[in-house]
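Attaching the record inline, Q. Sequence:
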Amino acid sequence: MKYVLVIVSFLLGAMLAVPLLSYLYKTGNIKHFGIENVRGEGEWKNLHRDGPWRFYFDNDTLHSEGTYDMGTQIGKWTFYHPNGEKKSEGEFSDGLRSGHWIEWYENGRKREEGDYKEGRREGYWTFRHENGQVESSGSYQDGKQIGEWYYHDEEGNQIGVLNYSKFNDAE
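Structure, as predicted:
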């Protein structure tokens, strides 16, 4: 039958539901149930997720897929909306977002795009309304908005400019 193994897990990613219970079957398959009822499948090594993993919503659609190295997210990860459309995609390095990331709305249009460095937003970013028009754009440094940021309404008309350097200089 089944052997039950209760494992306490820590939140490994802001968008990844953390499994609270794990069931180890004699076949070697492991299924997890967590906050969002997300089920994960993959290999364990010394009680850490290791190698490729896939997580599924209750309805068996893919929630996310990527690789762990002894419990730490590494390499390319892809997350999905419950309708099966991509939600976000990018790289992890030592468990932190790194490099270029893109997020999408459930309708498949881009929501935001930019780079991460050691888990913090870095460089030029673009955020979009659900209809695809640019909502705001500007730069980040060490996770803080810097310089001029441009804001637009849903029709694409510029509605404002804000210089964040003035705020950062006051700190």
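The chain has two domains: 29-108, 120-170. The chain has one helix and 14 strands.

More tomorrow.
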